[in-house]
Amino acid sequence: MERLQKVIAHAGLASRRKAEELIKEGRVKVNGTVVKELGVKVGPNDRIEVNEVPLQKEAPVYFLFYKPRGVISAVADDKNRKVVTDYFPHVEERIYPVGRLDYDTSGLLLLTNDGEFANVLMHPKHEVDKVYVAKVKGIPLRENLRKLERGVMLEDGKTAPAKTKVLSVDKRKQTAIVEITIHEGRNRQVRRMFDAIGHPVLKLKRERYGFLTLHGLSAGDARELTPHEVKQMRALALNEGKKR
User: Which of the 8 DSSP states describes residue 96?
Assistant: First the structure.
């Protein structure tokens, strides 16, 4: 179930804000009844009409994108910076990112127009593992990495236990490459976790999301997910939700 205005926006008929205006003006019907409340949720079997015209829903599409650094994980930016959807000029559907990667973070990002799929992946209880590779300042001691593995206290609460692995160290430059696996999706979480143990992140990349990887892609490249991958990602999220 999704909010009515979101469904209208995803169908490509109007922006989310314009869709809300249409609802408030009484120009939207659900199953033959005028709806003026913004909180109404609808399912795939509900019949939606806008200005007496039945809503034609877009076919769902799913993309895996290798986001470069210096790109916003959004469909628009008020500062006119490059956004992820700029890399999909050929896609007619109104796609949007599933979650986000920071402006300075590169790596694997999913985009879709399937709200139910996005909600399953982003729901806190369904979070699947995300693997990041971080170049950090200093060489973390094992005891500090154990803090991340137990969970560290941030301003928005304690993080869930993470997995860490030191991939390499540069004693001359006093830096280290650390792989970290988390399943939460808080804002700038990995950077804040390393800040909490005194090792600021210098460079960050998301290498894996569930079983999906960047194999064969360069920064700025994208590919469509196969129907099997979509099915498996949905199943993985739901199964992880049951475990946690």
Answer: E
Q: What is the CATH number of the domain that holds 165?
A: 3.30.70.1560
The Cβ of residue 112 has, within 10 Å, a number of other Cβ atoms equal to 21
**Which of 125, 92, 130, 126 is CA-nearest to residue 110?**
130
Phi-psi region of 172 (alpha: psi -120 to 50; beta: other; left: phi over 0): alpha
Does one domain contain both 18 and 77?
A: no
State whether 71 and 106 are in the same domain: yes
Residue 220, C-beta contacts closer than 8 angstroms, at least 6 positions apart: 66, 68, 87
pLDDT digits (tens, 9 = 90+) for 32-72: 999 999 989 998 789 999 999 898 777 899 999 999 999 99
One domain, residues 86 and 138: no
Is-above-0.90 flag for pTM?
no
Q: What residues are annotated to the active site? A: 102
Q: How far apart are CA 127 and CA 28, in angstroms?
A: 34
